[in-house]
Every structure is written in structure tokens, then in C-alpha cells.
Write a structure and sequence with these properties.
The chain contains 9 helices and 3 strands, in the order αααααααααβββ. By secondary structure, the chain is mostly helical. Keywords: Membrane, Transmembrane, Transmembrane helix.
Length: 241
């Protein structure tokens, strides 16, 4: 648990560093924020995840202190995010930094049980060593996938016209509602789809009402009966049907 919390703390620290890079470099570049600057910052956020996470795991051993530091760093990150629109109005960058998956720390969780059994202290020198227990290759693959996914999300969010997407979704919802309303108005009872016979019915009565003789109340209405040779079809209606 302490190592997990310190990894999360490390992720927030890297998010803070990323925001600083993304918002300081545009000042140098004449108040402009090229997209490649964002890419570089996000890549730095992703590829130092493992090293920084293990470093936090070797420095902070108390869960409580790690939680306190995480809250402080989150508040600092939030402050810079709120102050950033005058430089860069991309709030999505903050969301990407917060939602960056901790799959980069897969190797840490994978190795913990083995190190606990051996009684070996988890440090950067012991965890990321090519031994028969730990395989850094899986973590490097996780980092590469993480970086690709973050770049893809960044490009999608930066290039998609979200107002157009919202208008299209609203139009599809309205169209669906109109179709449902139309289907409801065109809906009819099952006896309206009854097969039409070529021959004439022996008995054909429609819209016949039944009134109770004792109370005079309407008990049945729209009573319909059709009698064909060898077959009888009866359809009943009642109040509230």
C-alpha cells in the first residue's frame, strides 16, 4: 500500500512537471503553444513514470505522509491548471495528466511478492535489474503502450470539433425521439392485423356494448365477433382497455 500511494504521488508530481513545461515553454516561444510542445511534455510524463515511481517508493514509506503529499501536489497542480487559460486554454491536458494509467508500474506490483518473500528491500537498484524474478521488458512495453495511447488521445481531443460532435449527438437523439413518437402514433392493435378473409362472415358484429342489467353500468364495450364457417373469432374490450 505505501508503494502504491507513492507511485500515485509520483504520477501527480510528473503531471505538475508536465504542466510547467507546457505553460513555461510557450512564454519563451512568443506566447504560442505548438502542439509538439504538448507531445514532448506528455512523453516526458510517460517515460519517466517507472523510474520516478520507484524513487518515490524508496523515499516515502509512510502511507499517511504519502497521502498528505499527494493532496498538496494535487492542489498545486489544480492551481496551475486554473491559472493556465490565459496561456493555453486546453483544460483537456489536465485531464490527460490525471487519467494517465499506472500500467507503467506493472513491474512494481509484479515484483513485490517475490521481494517480500526474499526479505529484500525494494529499491531502484534491486527492482529494475535483469534477474530471474523481475522482467523490465514488460514494464517497457507498458510504457510504450501508455505513450502511444496518450499521444492518440491528445491528437483526438485537440483536433476534434467537439461542438460539432455535440450537435450531431443531439440531432441523433432528436431523430430517435421523433421516430419513437411516430411509431407510437402509427401503432395499432393486433386485431387490426387480422387476416382478411375472402368469404363473407356468417355473423359480423362490431362496437357492441354490454350493460349490466342490475346496476346499469357499462361492463364491456367494443365487443366484436366474426363467425366464419367452421371458425369463430371473438375480440373483447372493456373499460380502461
Amino acid at each position: 500500500m505505501p508503494l502504491l500511494m507513492t507511485c500515485i504521488v509520483g504520477n501527480y508530481v510528473k503531471a505538475f512537471i508536465t504542466l510547467v513545461l507546457v505553460h513555461i515553454l510557450p512564454w519563451i516561444l512568443d506566447d504560442e503553444s505548438p502542439l509538439f510542445v504538448t507531445f514532448i511534455a506528455v512523453e516526458l510524463l510517460g517515460f519517466n513514470a517507472v523510474v520516478f515511481g520507484v524513487f518515490c517508493g524508496t523515499v516515502y514509506e509512510s502511507t499517511v505522509s504519502a497521502l498528505k503529499l499527494a493532496i498538496v501536489l494535487w492542489l498545486i497542480l489544480l492551481y496551475f491548471a486554473l491559472q493556465s487559460p490565459r496561456i493555453n486554454g486546453r483544460y483537456w491536458l489536465v485531464s490527460i495528466c490525471h487519467a494517465n494509467p499506472i500500467a507503467a508500474f506493472k513491474n512494481i506490483f509484479e515484483a513485490l511478492p517475490y521481494f517480500e518473500l526474499r526479505g529484500t528491500r525494494v529499491t531502484i537498484s534491486t527492482l529494475y535489474a535483469y534477474t530471474d524474478v523481475v522482467t523490465p521488458g514488460s514494464s517497457l512495453i507498458a510504457l510504450a503502450i501508455d505513450g502511444i495511447c496518450v499521444i492518440g488521445i491528445t491528437m483526438i481531443v485537440d483536433n476534434v470539433e467537439w461542438s460539432y460532435v455535440r450537435s450531431r449527438i443531439a440531432a441523433l437523439i432528436r431523430r430517435k425521439e421523433l421516430e419513437q413518437l411516430k411509431s407510437q402514433t402509427e401503432r395499432h392493435s393486433w386485431h387490426q392485423d387480422e387476416e382478411v378473409r375472402e368469404g363473407k362472415a356468417d355473423i359480423d358484429a362490431e362496437d357492441v356494448a354490454k350493460v349490466w342489467e342490475t346496476s346499469g353500468e357499462l361492463s364491456v364495450y367494443r365487443f366484436e365477433i366474426r363467425a366464419y364457417p367452421g371458425e369463430v373469432s371473438i375480440i373483447l374490450g372493456h373499460p380502461g382497455a
